[in-house]
Amino acid sequence: MEEKNKLLDLAQSPFKFQLFLLTKLPAAFFSGIKIKEINKEKCITSVPFTWLTQNPFRSTYFASLAMAAEMSTGVLALLNTYKKSPPISMLVTKMEATYFKKAKGITFFTCTEGSEIATTVNKAASGKVGQTVTVKSTGRNKGDELIAEFLFTWSFKAK
Question: For 39, which of 6, 57, 77, 85 is 20 to 30 Å away at the CA?
């Protein structure tokens, strides 16, 4: 439990998390993706509309949106697998996206399915059979308008 808290502390520290991104996920670092809020149940990430994240149509590139959406689910998955005994491997096996509106400013992605992820990781840890869970990340702009919804299927398996 103490190890999970260390990872949560890292994710909640803007400086430490940006250093983590720079060394482990440089594309996310250079895209300006940030964690705005995180706890065991929920993670909110953001991606800005900048020169590095734009597409030719004056909106945020779909891949930048997908990266921020995946991070909102992936950090919750990492919180539940970090230093787990037995060790658990995690992998995105499927992604679906629906786009509703152009992202012309900062987009916030929210995943509120931390408990579902925790339950799935615990099932995977108790046996040799892999487990999957599909979780949603919803992207909204500053005006709370729906920009996109992503569904990520995560696979967890004890090593």
Answer: 85
Q: What's the order of all strands across the beta sheet hosting 43-47?
A: 34-38, 43-47, 107-111, 131-141, 146-158, 88-99
Mean pLDDT for back-to-back runs of 10 residues, the chain (159 residues):
69 84 89 94 97 94 97 95 91 98 97 97 92 98 98 96
Contact 17, 74 (CB under 8 A): no
| Domains of the chain by start residue, with CATH | 2-158 (3.10.129.10)
Is the separation of the CB atoms in 67 and 139 below 8 Å?
A: no
Q: ∠ at Cα 109 (107, 113), nearest 5°?
A: 170
Q: Which residue do the tokens 């993670």 mark?
A: 43
Q: How far is the C-alpha of 140 from the C-alpha of 158, rounded, in Å?
A: 35
Helix (H, G, I), strand (E, B) or coil at 87: coil
